[in-house]
Amino acid sequence: MNKLIYRKNHNYEDIPHFVITKLGKVYKVFDSNYYSKTFGIPDYDKKIIKIAIENLGWLQRNSITGIYFNWIGDVVRTDPYIRYWRNYFFWDKYTNPQLVSLKLLVSELCEKHNIDNNCVKTQSVINNIELHNGIVFKCNLADIYTDINPSFDFNLL
To answer: Which backbone phi and psi does 122 adopt, to 5 degrees?
Structure first.
């Protein structure tokens, strides 16, 4: 939460509606009836309910110490998920409590906002994904995004 608050010297506009911690605790940052600036295109931004799942993303390994860390130096204390994807090989894993909380939250939001509880079950880029009335991820929009890494279990959604 602190990283969201202090990002870009308090001027970060791409704020998620919810954050799910590694322990599965859900924080509501702001009401899902409102939106923040994600793409800078209001027609797209108004249709998005963003859920951030705490995760360090792609990792690097120090070849001397064997310690894994992310791009800003945060150390990972668990074994990484290993799979080559989008030019990276090591990934921070999602936890079971996170995925359980995510499933419950997604179900609530789908019911509240009349969204199809239909998840795109891939990290691949999909053409015309904005036409899908359901659950998608930023990584489905363009290959520059690594928001949902290969360790994510789509079967839980």
So the answer is: -155, 155
